[in-house]
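Record passed on here:
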Amino acid sequence: MEKHQDRVIEEKRGLDIKINKLSAFMGSDTHDSLEGAERVRLHKQFEAMQAYSNCLNERINCFPKEVKP
């Protein structure tokens, strides 16, 4: 596997962990206590992170079969 492919795979893993943590936070009482504008910004951040993860996934899916995780 190429080093840059390893980095893409690790970047996606790390990003997906952050997405899961943010998703859990968005379902918490702490999130619910935030002002509306901050909740909107967090939702925008969440959507951007998901889009970024999807982009990384597309790149990984184009790697040669022998290097896919």
